[in-house]
Design goal:
With 491 residues, this protein is α+β, with helices and mostly antiparallel strands. Helix content is 33%, strand content 24%. The protein has 16 helices and 22 strands. The strands form six sheets. The chain has an eight-stranded antiparallel sheet with strand order 13-12-9-10-11-14-21-19, with helices on both faces. It has a five-stranded parallel sheet with strand order 3-2-1-4-5. The relative contact order is 0.10. The C terminus is likely disordered. The protein binds adenosine-5'-diphosphate (ADP). The site of adenosine-5'-diphosphate has 20 residues, from strand 12 and strand 13.
Length: 491
C-alpha cells in the first residue's frame, strides 16, 4: 500500500497550520510554502521545511501553480494539500499535480471541474434527482431571454456568475427594469472577476436557511455523510457563524438532505471530503446550491460533533485507503458553534481593517478550540483574507455551546485592529440567535447587532492603554479597545 511521507501544504494562515498539525500526528513531514510577506508567519515556523515561492500578491505566490509545483519537486514532497481558497478548487492544478507524480489531497480534477461551473453542476444535479433552485438550465445570453425566464419564475430572481464563488458575482433583482439594466453589467463583472462572462438566473429563495452536508467518499465505493452544518448567519453572502447540527433540521429532513448530498457526490465521481450546500425554504423544501470540492473553513464544528479529524480522513483517502467506518458507525454528539473572527468593522458594513495586532491571546478551556493564524502578535496583511481566527466551542446542548462561546469571546484578548468579536458576542447574547430564529437575512434583519454598545469614554481609554501595554483588563462585555485609542500602523 502507498504511504505518504511528505506533504506540501499549498496554503497559508490557520488552515496551513491546522493541516500540518494532523501531518505531525500521522508521522508525515510537512513542507510550507510562503510569500515574502509571510516570512515570519506561524505556518512557516511550524513546518518541517519551508520554501519561499514569491512576492506578496497571491497571483505571484500562493496562486502561482509553477512555483508551488517547483517547491514540491525540490522538497521531495509526495503529496499536496491545497487547504481552502487559493488553488484548492482549481481543476488544472489538481491535474498538474497528478502529472508531476504528486498525490493531490482532494477530489479528482473532473469533479472539481464540473462542480466549479454552476450551470454544469445544476444540470448534473437535476439528472441525479437532486432538487435545484428553479432557474435557467444554461447561461443566459440576451436581455430578452433573461426577461422571459424571470417572468416565468416570478420576481425576485438572482443573477449569478457561472464561474462565481466566495459570494461574489451575485445580484438580487426585484423588477424587469432592474434586470434589463443588470444583465450586461453582471456579464462584464463576471468576466473581470472570474475570466468567464457567463451568467445565469435563479429564483431568489425568500428567507432561506443555508444548510450544508459534509460528505466523505473513498476510492473503493465507500461513502458516508457527516451530518449537516447550518451557516445562515452571513454578511455579503459570506458566512460569519456556523453550527452543527442545525436546530432547524429534524430527523426526516436530515435523512432526505444527506441522501441528496450523497447522490450529488456520487454523480460527479467524488472522492475525499466535500460539502454540498443547500438552501432550505420556510416550507422545509431544500435546493442544491453548489458543491465545494475541498475542506471547508467551518469543518471544525463537524469534527467537534463526530470526533473525527477530517484532514486525517482526507489524507487516508488520498493515500488509497478505505474509509474505516460505515454510516451506522457514525453518530452526532452534542452541539458545536464556530465564530469566524475577522479584522473587520461590523459598524461600517464589515469593511476590512488590516494592521498590526499588538496583542493576541486567544481563549482556552474546556470545549474551546481556536484555529488562529497568529501564535503571537503580528500583522493582518492587506494582501490576504482578513480572517484572524476561528473560535469553535462544543457543548452537550446548543445552549451550552452558545454560553461557552460567549465566555470564550469575552476571554479573547486582542488589540490593534477592529474585529468581529464584539459583534459575535452580541449575537451569542441575543434572544433571537438563542431561539435559533435564523435565515440568510439575519444580519440585515437585526442591524442593532452590528452596532457597538456605547462605552463610557474613560473606560475605553483605560482599556486601550492597558491593552497596548499588554496587560489583561476587564472590559465591559463585547467591548474592544479600538477607535481613536487604537495603536496601529498601516502600510
Ligand atoms: P458562492 O459560490 O459565491 O459562495 P453560493 O451560490 O454558494 O455562492 O451562494 C452564497 C449565498 O448566497 C448563500 O448562502 C445564500 O445566502 C445566497 N444565495 C445564493 N443563491 C440564492 C438564491 N437562489 N436565493 C436566495 N439566496 C441565495
Amino acid at each position: 500500500m502507498r504511504q505518504l511521507r511528505k506533504v506540501l501544504v499549498a496554503n497559508r494562515g490557520e488552515i496551513a497550520l491546522r493541516i500540518m498539525r494532523t501531518c505531525k500526528e500521522l508521522g508525515i513531514r510537512s513542507v510550507a510554502v510562503f510569500s515574502e510577506a509571510d516570512r515570519q508567519s506561524a505556518h512557516v515556523r511550524y513546518a518541517d521545511e519551508a520554501c519561499c515561492i514569491g512576492p506578496a500578491p497571491s497571483k505571484d505566490s500562493y496562486l502561482a501553480i509553477e512555483r508551488v509545483l517547483h517547491a514540491a519537486e525540490t522538497s521531495g514532497a509526495d503529496a499536496v494539500h491545497p487547504g481552502y481558497g487559493f488553488l484548492s478548487e482549481n481543476a488544472s492544478f489538481a491535474e498538474r499535480c497528478a502529472a508531476a507524480g504528486l498525490v493531490f489531497i482532494g477530489p479528482p480534477a473532473s469533479a472539481i471541474a464540473v462542480m466549479g461551473d454552476k450551470t454544469h453542476a445544476r444540470k448534473l444535479m437535476q439528472k441525479a434527482g437532486v432538487p435545484v433552485v428553479p432557474g435557467t438550465p444554461l447561461a443566459v445570453e440576451t436581455v430578452e431571454e433573461a426577461m422571459w425566464t424571470a417572468e416565468s419564475m416570478g420576481y425576485p430572481v438572482i443573477i449569478k456568475a457561472a464561474a462565481g464563488g466566495g459570494g461574489k458575482g451575485m445580484r438580487l433583482i426585484e423588477s424587469p427594469e432592474q434586470l434589463a439594466q443588470s444583465i450586461s453589467l453582471s456579464q462584464s463583472e463576471a468576466r473581470s472577476s472570474f475570466g468567464d462572462s457567463r451568467v445565469f438566473i435563479e429564483k431568489y429563495v425568500v428567507r432561506p436557511r443555508h444548510i450544508e452536508v459534509q460528505v466523505l467518499l473513498d476510492s473503493h465505493g465507500g461513502a458516508v455523510h457527516l451530518f449537516e452544518r447550518e451557516c445562515s448567519v452571513q454578511r455579503r453572502h459570506q458566512k460569519v457563524i456556523e453550527e452543527a447540527p442545525s436546530c432547524a433540521v429534524a430527523p426526516v429532513l436530515r435523512d432526505r438532505i444527506t441522501g441528496a448530498a450523497l447522490r450529488a457526490a456520487r454523480a460527479c465521481g467524488y472522492e475525499g471530503a466535500g460539502t454540498v450546500e443547500f438552501l432550505v425554504d420556510q416550507d422545509q423544501e431544500f435546493y442544491f446550491m453548489e458543491m465545494n470540492t475541498r475542506l471547508q473553513v467551518e469543518h471544525p464544528v463537524t469534527e467537534w460533533i463526530t470526533g473525527l479529524d477530517l484532514v486525517a480522513e482526507q489524507i487516508r483517502v488520498a493515500d488509497g485507503e478505505r474509509l474505516p467506518f460505515t454510516q451506522s458507525d457514525l453518530a452526532m454528539h452534542g452541539h458545536s458553534i464556530e465564530c469566524r473572527i475577522y479584522a473587520e468593522d461590523p459598524a461600517s458594513g464589515f469593511l476590512p481593517d488590516a494592521g498590526m495586532l499588538i496583542r493576541h491571546a486567544p481563549p482556552t478551556g474546556i470545549g474551546v478550540r481556536v484555529d488562529a493564524s497568529f501564535d503571537e502578535p503580528g500583522e493582518v496583511s492587506i494582501y490576504y483574507d482578513p480572517m484572524i481566527a476561528k473560535v469553535s466551542t462544543w457543548g452537550r446542548t446548543r445552549e451550552e455551546a452558545i454560553r461557552r462561546m460567549a465566555r470564550a469571546l469575552k476571554d479573547y484578548a486582542i488589540a490593534g485592529v477592529k474585529t468581529t468579536i464584539p459583534f459575535c458576542l452580541r449575537l451569542m447574547e441575543s434572544e433571537v440567535f438563542r431561539r435559533g430564529d435564523l435565515s440568510t437575512h439575519f444580519v440585515t434583519d437585526h442591524p442593532a447587532l452590528s452596532v457597538p454598545r456605547p462605552v463610557p469614554y474613560g473606560q475605553a481609554r483605560a482599556a486601550a492603554i492597558a491593552a497596548a501595554l499588554g496587560q489583561r483588563v476587564r472590559l465591559p462585555a463585547g467591548v474592544q479597545p479600538s477607535g481613536q485609542w487604537q495603536q496601529r500602523r498601516r502600510r
